[in-house]
């Protein structure tokens, strides 16, 4: 058994010279912890079973984020931006987020005679309807109409002035702004482990300290929103789901995803970031729309950053141990049925021989995905 002692953690933005380093996003690390076989095969090796059905939860979430980004952009265009230079920033980032043609269509639905609520709704719905999402006959909850109904309730609960958007340089039309920020960060963690050697036939045990170890890897991902909360930087992470009860909210109190995003925000901006807010939207919104929007303030403390470093290091170690021999990776069978659906890798894991497993891998499709590619 090993214990982990953090010595130091340094983070900086990655450069072209760092692209040889292995890159990890939160989804990959989380998948490996859910089940090493699942995570390494689908995320690290980027494979999927042939004829895998659509992941409607992921697609609906991605489409919802098109709406969230549109709302933030509307906020900046009509509340935060004051000068001509800041207005130009709106155009630059509107085209970055949605492309020239889509952004032009989104702008065309705005009407000077309409209320702000109507304009915001039309702006966001145009982004959603032009996203490419389409209904699946097997899923009656995650439909385009349900997503748009939910986004209307999200807008009704959205305060355009409470959390101004972060911006790096208001005089530069190509500056960074706090909407859908992709990040690529080099993480250098120095740590020490102690091996605890136990003899189960005797009472005594002892520990052997090991030398200092250094891990260097890239941490990649995308921040939904970077804002100011009374002058301090805050990460606002948007989530969609079919349930938004107290149990759903409580998962974010200690979530490594939120902790990692605070670290990324601090590295990206050069400002301290210990504050975060999770904003949930239910799909479908439900009979009482106000109950379908939940917000949870989830601040971060130094010990949470230390725990994130431990999680980051140990998960990468687990991946590296089996990345070249995934058939030997542990199977966490509690994960064979997730979200009331059978794991698509069940035929692989249930194969009787190593040769059969290797043959299945050969028949699997490539699934090249990265948060930096979106």
Short description:
The protein is α+β, with helices and mostly antiparallel strands and about 375 residues long.
Describe the structure.
The chain is α+β, with helices and mostly antiparallel strands and 374 residues long. The chain is 40% helix and 23% strand. The chain is built from 12 helices and 12 strands. It has helices at residues 26-34, 36-44, 56-80, 84-98, 100-108, 116-129, 144-156, 246-250, 256-269, 302-322, 346-349, 354-363; strands at residues 2-13, 23-24, 47-48, 179-198, 205-209, 213-229, 232-241, 275-282, 293-297, 337-338, 341-342, 365-366. The strands form 3 sheets. Strands 1, 2, 4, 5, 6, 7, 8 and 9 form an 8-stranded mixed beta sheet that branches. The longest helix is centred in the first third of the chain and has 25 residues, at 56-80. The protein is globular, with a radius of gyration of 23 Å. The two termini are 40 Å apart. The model has no long low-confidence stretch (mean pLDDT 93).
Secondary structure elements and pairings:
Blueprint lengths: L1 E12 L9 E2 L1 H9 L1 H9 L2 E2 L7 H25 L3 H15 L1 H9 L7 H14 L14 H13 L22 E20 L6 E5 L3 E17 L2 E10 L4 H5 L5 H14 L5 E8 L10 E5 L4 H21 L14 E2 L2 E2 L3 H4 L4 H10 L1 E2 L8
Parallel strand pairs: 2-6, 7-8
Antiparallel strand pairs: 1-4, 3-12, 4-5, 4-6, 6-7, 8-9, 10-11
Helix pairs in contact: 1-2, 3-4, 3-6, 3-7, 4-5, 5-6, 6-7, 9-10
